[in-house]
Write a structure and sequence with these properties.
The protein has helices at 3-7, 24-37, 54-57, 66-70, 104-115, 134-142, 154-171, 186-204, 218-225, 230-233, 238-255, 263-271, and strands at 11-16, 42-47, 80-84, 87-91, 123-128, 145-150, 176-183, 208-215. By secondary structure, the protein is of the alpha/beta class. The chain has an 8-stranded mixed β-sheet with strand order 3-4-2-5-1-6-7-8, with helices on both faces. Bound molecules: adenosine-5'-triphosphate and magnesium ion. The site of adenosine-5'-triphosphate has 21 residues, from helix 2, strand 7 and helix 9.
Length: 274
């Protein structure tokens, strides 16, 4: 099959972290915006049951979630919310905890309906909950790539190490990309990456990809509080430029790993269809 065939499949990317509050949701929304500004069609899957969710960043309240589709109460198209011309949002809601215990009939029905979206999006970004709970692990394992967000807090490093370790041991995941957030500058970010990468490499024999650093930026914080995406409203801000650069690096990096591409593949992994 030609490479063109593969490149048409949706690229699936989990945005994840060991520790909570490190910026997953903020970066997911802004990376989606950066991708859209570069002409990519993006579906965001909100895989976190928690409170401060990605819908808030876009100022929308989704009509339903994946559980409605599992129960056969809604069509997939009814739970996809278009938030801008190139960005759509689908919420896992409480369906997230159901996904890996569906019966074979429900599994097939879900995979078939979600696969209808396959050619409508270039990327699916999955905003996960923090930590190593089952649903975080299977969303990461199903995605083509995982971007782990770390910040200078030692607890963030320890928890991210634990997450990478389980995904490697239990799911044989070997490719992880790192985004350093809330650092002083690029120099501190790179040093943080090198420190973390060295430990992961030494104890788990896994090499990590560095996707870049986002500085601690009060403009980003303020922008988020006002439900504005900084990449869109203040594209010249330091953090916005960092996120744009990461989105370019991400596209180059994902192009190189076609093996687990596609929405159908992702959903089959999530619900455990062999
Ligand atoms: N680079 C940054 N500069 C300034 N503030 C930031 C930055 N990144 C994130 N924040 C702020 O940190 C807080 C937590 O961010 P966010 O909700 O995106 O984290 P999260 O990882 O999704 O959290 P959770 O684990 O609870 O889902 C928010 O108030 C956000 O505005
Ligand atoms: Mg979040």
């Amino acid at each position: 099959m030609s490479s063109r065939f593969y490149s048409q499949k949706t690229k699936t990317l989990a945005i994840t972290s060991g520790k909570g509050g490190v910026g997953k949701t903020t970066l997911t929304a802004n990376l989606a915006q950066a991708l859209a500004q570069q002409g990519q069609r993006v579906l965001i899957f909100d895989g976190d049951l928690g409170m401060a969710n990605v819908d808030i960043m876009f100022g929308v309240k989704p009509e339903g979630n994946i559980l409605d589709v599992i129960r056969g109460e809604k069509e997939i198209s009814e739970v996809v919310t278009q938030v801008s011309p190139l960005i759509a949002l689908i919420s896992g809601g409480s369906g997230i905890v159901e996904l890996n215990r569906l019966n074979p009939f429900e599994r097939r029905a879900l995979v078939d309906s979600v696969s209808q979206l396959e050619h409508a999006y270039d990327y699916m970004l999955i905003d996960t909950a923090p930590g190593i709970s089952d649903n975080v692990l299977y969303l990461n394992a199903a995605a083509q790539m995982s971007a782990v967000i770390i910040n200078p807090d030692p607890a963030s490093l320890a928890d991210s190490y634990a997450l990478i370790k389980v995904l490697n041991r239990e799911y044989k995941e070997t490719r992880f990309s790192i985004i350093c957030n809330q650092v002083r500058d690029e120099v501190e970010g790179l040093a943080l990456f090198n420190r973390f990468s060295e430990v992961v490499n030494r104890f788990l024999s896994i090499g990590l990809d560095y996707w870049g650093s986002v500085p601690q930026d009060n403009l980003l914080k303020r922008s988020t509080l006002q439900q504005r995406l900084i990449v869109r409203h203040e594209p010249q801000a330091e953090s916005a430029r960092a996120i744009q650069a990461i989105s370019l690096r991400m596209q180059q990096s994902v192009q190189k790993s076609d093996t687990k591409a596609g929405l159908q593949f992702f959903w089959e992994q999530v619900v455990g269809v062999a």
